[in-house]
Amino acid sequence: xxxxxxxxxxxxxxxxxxxxxxxxxxxxxxxxxxxxxxxxxxxxxxxxxxxxxxxxxxxxxxxxxxxxxxxxxxxxxxxxxxxxxxxxxxxxxxxxxxxxxxxxxxxxxxxxxxxxxxxxxxxxxxxxxxxxxxxxxxxxxxxxxxxxxxxxxxxxxxxxxxxxxxxxxxxxxxxxxxxxxxxxxxxxxxxxxxxxxxxxxxxxxxxxxxxxxxxxxxxxxxxxxxxxxxxxxxxxxxxxxxxxxxxxx
Length: 249
What we know:
By secondary structure, the chain is α/β, with parallel strands linked by helices. It has one domain (2-185, 212-234): NAD(P)-binding Rossmann-like Domain (Rossmann fold, 3-Layer(aba) Sandwich). It is built from nine helices and nine strands. This is SDR family oxidoreductase.
């Protein structure tokens, strides 16, 4: 049995990735910052007969989380094979009024949290000498400009470059690192906006936003041996939106 880590995973894309890995028969260690969301997610997994997981309630960018995760990796069943660095936040704000506090927060979670999670997992994989796959969660905003998302887009573009740079460090140990960049995706958060589906369907060439299953299937590809010679790459999953770049109204 293989073992994977997924952060930010009690809802949306992260939760679907966890569920998809569990359905393969593998073990997952996952986290979220909200205990109520964790409890709900665990109940959903149990309802589907899925029990091979451990969850951690913690900020994925905190030292406490990394310490707890390190212990769980060593103590839980399965051979560590990969990680999806999914935890992140989105903060909207125009360039002229964006605050230092907001920038500190988004850099801490999106950049620092991802960097040191990848470092921890890479060390575990290196020491086990079995190779593996690390997947970073970027965004279409790391590839194309979007109104009021300068800071967020900057962090996501940085993750694309991080994956390219870490090819140098990780390839000698047969550890692959890639990013996926979702576009508009139907999740609990986005569906709370009653206009979201209609608006993004009208400007997406394929005629609809992505589902969480669309993103999870791409993640499974990068975690699997099917992508064993793919590293340092970023896959955009947006129904063609970045090719035309029509902004939402």
